[in-house]
Design goal:
The structure is a homodimer.
Chain A (H helix, E strand, L loop, with lengths): L1 H19 L6 H8 L3 H8 L2 H25 L5 H18 L1 H12 L4 H27 L8 H16 L2 H8 L11 H19 L3
Chain A binds a DNA duplex through helix 3.
DNA sequence: TTGAATTAAACAAACGTTTAATTAATTTTT
DNA sequence: AAAAATTAATTAAACGTTTGTTTAATTCAA
């Protein structure tokens, strides 16, 4: 039950950090939400920042490894790889909206330098892996000569933009305020379709 | 000299808010950066949140009005309007990176509900104006049947992604760490070209 | 002389963290 | 297997700082 409590605190913390930001979410708030004593946060994670780092380190490695795996795969074509990465980001972001909101905020803020740099470095790795796929496609002449890193920025940026607010997202989806688009399989497909069509016509345009 | 001091505080506050977030930037910090007494912030803006709101209200109306103007224009074609909006966002974002970082953070955070809703509403207005352009283009059969609100999300999202960190941006641009891509005219052109090509092949694809 | 601008000092409240005491669980010894 | 000893988990209370804001006095300009 020890690790259960640890992960429980982390899970509740993700939602609070996403909602209020790192500074905006107080330790007392975190403890109340997780239904534990205030001192438990420091007991398990040392500091508030330690808790944040634990969350990031645990969850961010997954996406990075998956992208690395896709990039290194030798049986997939370049366009198949691009499609897989699009699906990976949409599914990952929509299934863990809180976590990715957290990350987005921290990428904007340069206050906690160590944390910020760690995020940037992982992101740069992902960019490089994506670039290598695109560049190979261009060399093979299956892709047009596109601006690879900016194509990556478009994919991530589009999903991030959707993630920015559920309300805005509802306007996009045209549904009512109580409906949760992140949990809707149809909305997910719609987003994937949009990005794929967009990127395909850009990459494969003659 | 009164308004000068007011705007001076606002200008310095934008940079601090962008760098550290709303909660992360303390009033003492703001006062020190603007080289004024701590009490002056409350004297001019009532509260810290009042300062934030003043900044947002002053600057955000400009973009909204420009988009409305473009959408209402009767001499421009639909594709010309789309191009103008792309240029508007890239130029606006790159010339005022601090302000737009601030906005991005506040759109992610739902703590200050009033502020958040105001941002969302303005954004929804912009989305609707953009949609009406796209829908007209589709009706005229000069555009393919695209997902208009998601196309808008792609444009904004791409620029926002670029804005997320100067370091990441430098990796995109392939330059050294001291170079400031936001001030580089060539990088701006590169970004505009990428988005235009991307959106064009998506909208005009047969 | 009147009102605005500016200041240093103080305010209570909230912050992250630590402490010291207590309970619960585990291990060691009998 | 029971008792004792040891470690881990949990708690309420307090720690010193920092927070945003206010006050009351002072300087400045009209």
């Amino acid at each position: 039950m020890v690790t259960d409590k640890r992960t429980h605190i982390m899970e509740r913390a993700i939602e609070l950090f996403a909602e209020k930001g790192f500074e905006g979410a107080s330790v007392r708030d975190l403890a109340t939400q997780a239904d534990v004593n205030i001192a438990m946060v420091n007991y398990y994670f040392g500091t508030k920042e330690g808790l944040f780092q634990q969350i990031v380190e645990t969850r961010m490695a997954t996406t990075r490894d998956k992208i690395e795996e896709i990039a290194a795969n030798k049986t997939l074509s370049e366009i198949e790889k691009v499609d897989l990465i699009i699906e990976l980001y949409v599914e990952g972001f929509l299934s863990q909206p809180g976590f990715h909101k957290m990350i987005q905020q921290e990428m904007l803020v340069t206050k906690r330098e160590g944390m910020h740099e760690k995020l940037i470095n992982t992101f740069i790795q992902n960019t490089n892996n994506f670039n290598s796929i695109i560049e190979k496609g261009i060399r093979k002449k299956v892709f047009t000569k596109v601006d690879a890193p900016l194509v990556f920025a478009t994919i991530i940026g589009t999903v991030n933009q959707i993630l920015k607010s559920k309300i805005v997202c509802n306007v996009f989806a045209g549904y009512n305020k109580n409906y949760d688009p992140y949990k809707d399989e149809q909305f997910k497909k719609r987003l994937i379709t949009h990005i794929k069509q967009l990127i395909h016509s850009h990459l494969l345009n003659k």
